[in-house]
Amino acid sequence: MRVTDQPPNPLIVPAPMPIARPLDHALRILTKTADHGRLWMGVAAVGALASRRTRRGAFRGLASLSAASLVSNALLKPVFGRRRPDPERTVIARRIGELPWTSSFPSGHAASAAAFATGATLEVPWAGPLLVPLAAAVAYSRVHVGVHYRSDVWAGAAVGITVALIGRAMWPVKPWGPALMAAGNAPALPQGEGLTVILNGASGSSDGAADSISRALPKARILEWDPSTDIDDLVDELPKAFGVAGGDGTVASVAQLAHDHGLPLAVFPAGTFNHFAKALGLDTDAETVAAVETGTSGMVDLATIDGVPFLNTASIGQYPEMVRRRDKYSDRMGKWPATAYAILRTLRHEKPIDLVINGEKHPIWIVFIGNGRYSPRGLAPAWRDQLAGGVLDVQYLRADRRFSRTRAILYSIIGVARLSKVYGELEAGHVRIESLSGAKPVAHDGEITDPKDVVELSISDRRLIVYRATS
Q1: In this protein, which residues make up the domain named DAGKc (predicted)?
Q2: Which domains can be identified in the chain, with CATH numbers?
Q3: CA atoms lying within 13 Å on the CB side of residue 70
Q4: Which of 120-134, 343-357, 373-387, 434-448 has the highest mean pLDDT?
Q5: Which of 318, 341, 374, 417 has the most beta carbons within 10 angstroms of its beta carbon?
């Protein structure tokens, strides 16, 4: 054997302290950043500031993360109690220092990463190509630094994805873009030629809307309407299409005018809530302008209550008061907390009423009628997937079940209202509601009318042509 005093070739004999590669540094930093969900909280903060859409994605992502972390760390880890990998089997350059003391199975980091990425992607699909690789990197980093086995990571990821999907089943994802509707045949009106736009002169937003529409559609005719006068007297000659800028009550009035003459309707979102415009996928004036100039259109159902049209919802009894309270506090508290608060206030201070709905008597707390089937089911219906289904959606909270109010709130919060016996529902093309408790307030599309003891609701035989979002 050859003996030499020369130092060995470093390419053949490794150094006693392995040198960390850039990948080792990056994964050590990544895995530490993800401790306690800090990485995902930072991502959520960016999303919350970016737009309304990404804000919803951030909220669902964090909610999924919280639930997955609870399941993996508080429920599964104590059950399995798996020992962590031997740190001596991990290259020193990869180690992160002190070994975590909790069970190795499943990986909480992988569960949180998968839950956040899945939850956020359900709300914001285009974020998936960004979030999924990041979540996968976090999951792999736990194996790379030697604190988890591969099976821990796979199990954690499965927990996170499952929790996010269960969350979607309990709290459905609100669809983006226009709801489904029948095919329309509205004409394209370049620069608004042939379009007459009606504004609510009593609305404070009408001035700004008029300027915006005039700039975008210089050939459109713009008229101001006093709601105390007959809207038919406002129009001296029929245009190719009607437009409207205002709240949902104003939109419903102009919708009836367009429907009576068989003309298309363009809705500019100039109201406070713009429920109908959002159902058409129209969140901005620019989107309505694009639809008008390209002729992108569809046909939707027009509902009536005692002959008066409504496009979104109608109700009798306490529901109008609940909606008023919810909308009042939504910006301050968020929609779900505001809804829970409004429900508590309304149900606490009001008494049940006896209603006869299509011949069946029901003691109820709240009744809601939607033009089309609304989701989610329960006390906070918010959107429709279909605008031309030909049905009225009647949902009501029964007062003949024990602890119905408390159960209703709990079931609505956890998203299983449709499985509860405290809720009743009916879908029909015609609905007759009679109050046996005397005349009660009636509301439709945010407008509260005189109390009545009998109301008749129906879906018109002829659909309304509307301009809708192009995507």
Answers
A1: 190-309
A2: 22-170 (1.20.144.10), 182-298 (3.40.50.10330), 313-444 (2.60.200.40)
A3: 8
A4: 120-134
A5: 417
